[in-house]
Amino acid sequence: MADRTHILFLCVGNACRSQIAAGLIEVLAGDAFVAFSAGVRPAGLVHPLAKRVVGEVGGSLDDASSKGLEKFLGAGAPRIDIAVSLSRRASRRYRTSRIGAPLIEWPIADPIAVEGNDEDRLTAFRWVRDEICIRLEDAIAAGALVAKPRASARRFEKLRSLFSDDKG
Q: Residue 97: what pLDDT?
């Protein structure tokens, strides 16, 4: 499909949030998007609880791997039409990159930071999954993430207004 939007999800370690988002967009929108994920300091693994919570809603991260933002720079890098950052740190690093695609900021707490027993940690991962899912569903329904390269300025501004930084 030539008209698929190439979307890059970013976080710090590319172990949880950005992986969850990439897995969810495939569940929510099927083949309408080509999803990528990256981290500014790749952890080197996809967290098992991220795999679990995406699997609970019909997705899979079985083939996912933790990778750095550098993979999306330079010759031979995949085309990126829009980037969605799930952490402020990743947003700062993206702005200094040369990718150039519009950036949407959806800062969400990192579930890996949650301490406690296994159930507490699983609850945190499910909360993050559900929060990302809500944001993706709303953005797709609003037409803000359309399956066309280089989202129009109007659609980009619509998405930005839906999820301004003051919402968390």
A: 86
Within-domain flag for 105: yes
CA dihedral sign, ordered 100, 14, 24, 33: positive
CATH number, position 74: 3.40.50.2300
Sequence-ordered list of residues with C-beta below 8 angstroms from that of 143, at least 6 positions apart, any chain? 155, 158
Task: Identify whether the C-beta of residue 18 lies closer than 8 Å to the C-beta of residue 11.
Answer: yes
Cβ(24)–Cβ(53) under 8 Å?
A: no
Pairing of strands 82-85, 5-11: parallel
Distance CA 9, CA 20 (A): 9
Longest dimension (CA), the chain: 46
pLDDT tens by residue, 27-43: 999 888 999 999 999 99
Structural domain range at position 150? 5-161
Please give the tally of structural domains in the chain: 1
Residue 117 has pLDDT above 60, yes or no: yes
Is 30 within a domain?
A: yes
